[in-house]
Structures are given as structure tokens and as C-alpha cells.
Amino acid sequence: MPKAAIDLNNLPYADGDFYGFEQLLSGPERERLREVRDWLAKEVRPIAVDYWNRAEFPMDLIPKLAELDIISPVRRQGHSNLFAGIMHAEFTRADTSIATFMGVHDGLFTGSIELLASEEQKAAWLPDIYAMRKIGAFGLTEPLGGSDVAGGTRTTARREGGNWILNGAKRWIGNATFSDWVLIYARDVADDQVKAFLVDTKTEGYSASKIENKISLRTVQNADITLTNVVVPEEFKLAGANSFRDTNKVLKVTRLGVGWQAVGQQLAAFDVARRYAVERHQFGRPLASFQLVQEQLVQILGNAVSSMGMMVRLAQLEDAGVAKDEQSALGKAFSTTRMRESVALGRSILGGNGIVTDYEMAKIFSDAEAIYSYEGTYEINTLVTGRAITGVSAIV
């Protein structure tokens, strides 16, 4: 008689948390994580491939996200950075595009307001941001400036009386085709310092056009932004954003989020590859019965667990208030490199079915490329770490 089908959901390591890192969370945090997982399984994963294929964003998901009430889990809700990181990994595990949307609105945009705005500005802006009545975007990267944007910001800000006049262009700005607000980082022509401005996307002189033909994060609505004599009142300049060092306060934290995305991406690859290996038969046997397939699955798991271990420690350092830029840089560089290997192994296990999105793995494989590059490329994060351990900068 044929053997009964294996129920992967009832295996000892069904959640992929091979070393039990989630046990480091408090009881209420574990319960909240279960709620978020259940919500993602119901609301996000079933629609993810379809919207990715169409390169459209599921706008009706925003009020559901607002009801879930997960914006600013650390500063607003009092959760640990470890909980926030694992939750972000779970979002990525369900769909990297929706996780990236959250990383932009919650991490980059909301994080900038929380870290760099005055108390008066926070009181005026954050209620709508937390409730997702206002969706935000983060405008730092430029058409001719990515890794070198710290010293090469071309977008300018000129003070005229009680206003600032912004001119320039931004590129790869997630959410910007439909966001209500966007934070624009611009170089003050008076002192050559990079400052931040909250811009209403309905302001005259502001335009955003969707970047088409992407092979990664297709659901994310990345845009090219053009700013032509955009007038921003003084009270919409972020009070605490007066140099790129201030901007780095935000990027250090959000870089951790991308490291967690790399963990979630590997767990997604593990989920899909393991299920396929158990259910798919070749030569009259399940793929999972072949030694080489088991070796590949274990390698994916090992990559995910090692990445998660590093990110857990980084979250603990962040909770203790002692995390350093170079530690975030190494975490992002290491975890995204392991991720690239993991998704390639997962794609290989699915064979030809691994290149069509019907089986999810093609989407997972493609999305990994964006994670590998944004929030600091592998090369830049490696050089930041190298500078820390040698005392010598290799960055021009």
C-alpha cells in the first residue's frame, strides 16, 4: 500500500526555526507573532503571485493592514527589536513585495519621522501615519546617485523666506506612485548639508512615474520622482535632519530590517522547496528521498539559521542601544549573500517548475535580487565592515 502523505505542518520544525530563536520572545510577543502569521496566510500569500505577475499593488490591503495595527512595533507599541525583526521576516516569507511596502512606510518613512522630527511635528504627523490614513515614501536615491548619495546628492534645497524650494530627481522610490507624503532628502545650497523635507505629493511641481519592466519586487510601485520648484514651508523641514549623519541614524536601523528580509526570503524558499520535494515524485519515489535533494534542503536551512542567528544577536544589541553601523552592515551583507545561494538551491530543486511563478519559487528567486542590492549593496556594506576592522577606508 502507498504511504500516507506527509503533513509538513506537523513536522517538528514546521516553522523552520531549527534552533528555537522565537523562544527568546516574550509570551505576548509569541502570541502576537502567531496572529500576524495567521493574517499573512489568509490575506497576503494567496494573492501574492497574481499581483506580482500583474505588477500591481493590492490597494484594498492597506485598510486591512491598518486594522492589523502593526506600525512602529518598537517605539510605539513597546515590542522588542527582536520581535520586530522576526515579524518582518514573516512578512517577507509571505511576500517580499508587501514586506518591502511595509519597510518603506513603517521603517524608512515612519522611522525618519520618529527619529528626526521635532515633538511638534511628530504630534501633527504621526497619528495619521500610524493609522495608515497617510501613506509615506522615502526619497533618497537618485538617478545618478545610489551608493555615493551621501556625498553626491544632486537634489537641491534653497531657502526663500519662510519656504524651501526643492529641485531635482529621485529614483527607485517605493510607494511613490500612490503615497500621500514623501520624505525628500536634498542638499542645502547654503551649507552643502543634506536635509529632509516632508512633501505632500499633490504639491505643484512634484511628479512621480512608475518604473516599468522590473524582474524583482514587481508588486512594489517604484517611481521616478521629478521636483521642479517645489515649495515646502519651513515647518515641513524635519527639525533633526541637518546632515547625512542624521540620515544614517535611520539607515542603520532599516538595514537591520533588510537583513531580516533575507532571513524571511530563505525561509520562504525552504517552505516551497521542502513541500515540492516531499510531494513531487521522480523514478517512482519522492524527490525528498534522494540524498542530494536532502543535502540541498539542509543547506538552505543552514543558511537561513546562520543568518537568523546573526540577526537575532543584532536585534539584541539594538535593544541594548549598543548596535554599531558596521555590525548592521555585516549582517546585511552576510545574510543577503546566503539568501542568494538559498533561493538558487530552491529554484534548482523545483527544476523547470522553478522558473514559472505558478509554483512561487520563481518569484522568491527574482525578489532576492532586489534585497541583495537595496539598503546598501553587498560591496558597500563589506567595505563599511572592512573599514571597521582595519581602520583603513577603501571607499573613495
Overview of the molecule:
The protein has twelve helices and nine strands. It is of the alpha+beta class and 396 residues long. It has three domains: 18-130, Butyryl-Coa Dehydrogenase, subunit A, domain 1, CATH 1.10.540.10; 136-242, Beta Barrel (Butyryl-CoA Dehydrogenase, subunit A, domain 2); 245-390, Butyryl-CoA Dehydrogenase, subunit A, domain 3 (Up-down Bundle), CATH 1.20.140.10. The strands form two sheets. Strands 1, 2, 3, 4, 5, 6 and 7 form a seven-stranded mixed β-sheet that branches. Helix 1 runs parallel beside helix 4, helix 5 runs antiparallel to helix 6 and helix 10 packs across helix 12 (378-390). The longest helix has 36 residues, at 244-279. The protein is globular.
Brief summary:
By secondary structure, the chain is of the alpha+beta class.
Q: Which class best fits the helix and strand makeup?
A: alpha+beta
- Distance, first to last CA: 68 Å
Counting H and I runs of at least 4 residues, what is the number of helices?
Answer: 12
Share of helical residues: 40-55%
How many domains would you count in the coordinates? 3
* CATH topology call of the largest domain: Butyryl-CoA Dehydrogenase, subunit A, domain 3
Spatial extent as radius of gyration: 22 Å
Main sheet attributes: strand count, strand direction, barrel closure: 7 strands, mixed
**Average pLDDT number:** 94
What percentage of amino acids are in beta strands?
A: 5-15%
In total, how many beta strands? 9
Supply the CATH class of the largest domain: Mainly Alpha
**Elements, N to C (H/E):** HHHHHHEHEEEEEEHEEHHHH
CATH architecture of the largest domain: Up-down Bundle
CA-based shape: globular
Give me the CATH superfamily of the largest domain: Butyryl-CoA Dehydrogenase, subunit A, domain 3
Low-confidence stretches are: none
